[in-house]
Amino acid sequence: MVPVTIETLVVAVLPTPSVVVLRPKHDDAASENAFSERVLPIWIGPTEAASIGIALEGQTHLRPMTHDFIVNTLGALKSKVERVVIDRSEGSTFFATVYLEREGQTVNIDARPSDSIALAVRMNAPLFVDEDVLNSSSYPYDFSKTDDTEATMDEFHSFIESLSPEDFSHTE
What we know:
The protein has 5 helices and 8 strands. It is an alpha+beta fold.
């Protein structure tokens, strides 16, 4: 299992899908792993994306939303989310397991990754992805930061200024 964090969340309106992008964690260069420069995008529904976004921003509603209700129910039952593991993928469908702890016992619950992530964020539970899932479904991503932002912006502005409407015409 590889610990991950939410790199970004895109909340879209249908018919455009929303996406949560997970990235393997590493605290410093010494702890980088084979997956440290990869991302795992998971397409999710807009409702679940909004729920994750609300939790990430620490917002609350007057009345509990579905994931808040589940968190409240777990609290009333003296349970907590111990961890969430995205443990399998079949094509573009991902599967997750929520590990609940109650009175020293661990209970495994099959769940959608989007619901699992929404709960984990609300309960500060760690997120993990199985290595096989990362091997089969993640993508390389360059996280390096350029030190010369001004030069990059100058180059971009020069490119924009060199464009003309003819550049967008389709000649065959």
